[in-house]
User: Fold this.
Amino acid sequence: MKLSDYIVEFLKDNGVTTIFGYQGGAITHFVDSIYKADKIKFISNYHEQASAFAAEGYARVSGKIGVCTATSGPGATNLITGIGSAYFDSIPCLYITGQVNTYEYKRSNGIRQEGFQETDIVSIIKPITKYAIMITAPDKIKYYLEKALYIAKDGRPGPVLLDIPMNVQRSEINPGELIGFYESKEYKSEIKKQVNIEDVSKLIELIKQSERPVILAGGGIRLAKATESLEKFIDITGIPVVSTLMGIDSVNHEHKCYVGYMGAYGTRYSNLTVANCDLLIVLGSRLTTRQTSSITDSFAREAKIVHVDIDRNELNIKVKEDLTIECDLNLFIDSLNQNLESSLCKTDFTSWIDKINSYKKMYPSFKKLKNKNQIDPNEFMNRISKDLNPNSIICLDIGQNQIWASQSLKLSKNQRLLNAGGMGPMGFGLPSAIGAWHAKPDYKIVVITGDGGIQMNIQELQTIAREKIPLKIIIMNNNALGMIRHFQEMYFESSYSGTIDGYTVPNFMKISEAYGIKSLKINDETAMNQLKEKLNDDESYVIEVQLNNITYVTPKLGMGKPIEDQEPLIDRNELKENMIIDLYKS
Assistant:
């Protein structure tokens, strides 16, 4: 059997139905094998970076491993940003790159290159993968495939890469004689870290003693498939829950206990909730400075902090934690729920919920504009929430568009929101949506991007047109790189180099027409009324939302401030009245 054919059959046996990539000389054997096989398809993008993002979107939505392939040299290096995104956001993806024949590969480190497009991709991407290796022995292909998939999914998930020379791809093997990873001495049966019942008991006791508890839900909730367990925990206890950027879709926003997105760009009411709590239960969040602010001693400063995460390296390193728990989130929350029910733990946080609701009323994430000829980005996001299909997946790009959506979209139980958090790569939205659609073609897929982000991978409009993917692509167009423009206003005396000056955008309506995709421009209330129908039909649309050139994301945390003191700053007496605890003193 040809080795490249074996790889395809192996992937099929492991639930892979779609492989994203771009054709090239060193990967032709593998791509040819995909095309010859049934029940698996190759989706050809128009840039390898887009293929990597598509595989990530597929993995996030399907719960399976995302697979992406590219040729050697520039094909492989074009994957790097996507690999980094999967690594930082803990998404299990397998990247298969082609490589020059083993007999062409450089014979010593002193030689820069021997084969055409030869590049040592393994060494380049090792810091941003869980596992990467070049396969030189055909009879070890089963071993490396099994090991790669195991590592990608085990513990804290992440990307892996197999680099396969052309002569290895085309070699003949006998599948019956191959030795696998699971048969080797290296493999040890997966033993999930057991729940420590003492930790569960301690947390239950802390909940009983608390008057103002808060759950902080991070991206780890989705990764651990713990959304149902979390909802049950909230139902049992009535504890209010805030989310990080990556955890926004881990909770039904219609739940009475959901507060909102917290952090540097989070809502003011969510940050006030965290600042004033007396118990903070952190579930699957890294607690970066975007949550804690740069002055970490100000964060939830009068609360006992309980941190649960599968990765011990993320525990007890940024803030002082009162209870640190290394465990799979789903296992832990399930055990917690069982013990809460059996102990008949009674909780009543009505007065605390009332206080939080007063924060929401005082500081909503949007205000309705009286001028119907203008579009307020946050109001727009809140409004389209009501128009979205209950089974929708919203894929965000990076920039102001991402934050407006994260602050003001209201997600129902079955809706998903894909955010690229750690790497934060512009150009993520459109290709990740292609991957999401291939994972769940019965869902309505919406992209929210900016005029800058869309241009990073705009060529993927051709993938959408060719594959007839019914995507709704909303471009929030302010004719500027708004996030950095605001930064320049604050710190560079409004010198808008590269954000307004020396930056322009094309006519997106004409571009859409060139790709054969329908378009709609929204710049007033009349055009807004056409949107609901477009969001829910079965056609592709480019929807351009025309904004003012100068736009802002508010509230926004400034340097050296605690999270409850975002800009624009509110009156000091007003802030003091909102605080249950004392104001922070530096």
Residues 48-62 form the longest helix (15 residues). Residues 90 and 223 are 8 Å apart (CA to CA). The first strand starts at residue 18 and ends at 21.
